[in-house]
Amino acid sequence: MKKNYNPNSKKGYGIELEIDIAKTLDGKKYCELTKEWKYRIKQLFHNNTFSQLDVIHAYKYYDSYAKPDIVIEVNGMSRKISVKCGKNPSVHMEELGDFLKFLLKIGVPDRIVRIIEFYHYGKSNKLSNRGKPFSREELISDFGEYLVEVNDYFDTHPEIVKYIIYRTVIKGVRKADPIDAIFYGNVENGFIITTHEIYDLILKEDKPTLMAPHFRGLVYQPSGRKVGSVDSRYSRIKWAILPVLYYNEDFRSTHK
């Protein structure tokens, strides 16, 4: 009996879910797939016509730190898929210094980058809470005008956000393949969104400006706030709309 994971389950199911999806598909003839997976396969391969006897191959991607999690192959064609689940899924983690250098390289103003760094650590050379970092809540309430400035910038520079989407969602920083799609859900239930749709969904999503730094639909946060911890050196990007879409009937009517 297959495990039917709750897509909002706690951390720890991700790798198992990837393996189970690959096992569910690998070696199956197209006619043996559920109607949902037939729909997803056609969506992944741009509605190509498949014979009922065509065999699907699926396996884990070779680099566990790259963006693709599984590869699906049919008739010599392949698609790299990122598998997501959870209530507030992460799409990217990177050392803060490298991410800030990337932002500067693509043309983000130095002042905007420095505000993101201030939000990350909760303090700067000039501002601190008596030597300690400000909490997330204090940063938003006491320094909200800085966050509004950052978010206004990214809201009005979609060409910059596209570079960020490519790095944090599609390609990553490793020498590996970009993804062709994201699958969100569990083995039986979920949906596929292609790279074109990923850009479209992120760029169209509106968020309040008085909140954490965000790149349209992608929200920035430090991986951890404990001073001196390893996590505090890493940036993390979240895409919280995925579980919302899972329960959106209109969206799911076209994404099975």
Describe the structure.
Strands 1-2-3-5-6 form a five-stranded mixed β-sheet. A four-stranded antiparallel β-sheet has the order 4-9-8-7. The protein is of the alpha+beta class. The protein is elongated, with a radius of gyration of 20 Å. The protein has two domains: 84 residues; 140 residues, no CATH class. The protein has ten helices and nine strands.
The gist of it:
With 256 residues, this protein is of the alpha+beta class.
What order do the helices and strands come in, and which of them pair?
Blueprint: H1 14-25, H2 35-44, E1 56-60, E2 70-74, E3 77-84, E4 90-95, H3 96-105, H4 110-121, H5 136-142, H6 144-155, H7 158-171, E5 181-185, E6 190-194, H8 195-204, E7 214-215, E8 218-222, E9 234-238, H9 241-246, H10 249-254
Parallel strand pairs: 3-5
Antiparallel strand pairs: 1-2, 2-3, 4-9, 5-6, 7-8, 8-9
Helix pairs in contact: 3-4, 4-6, 7-8
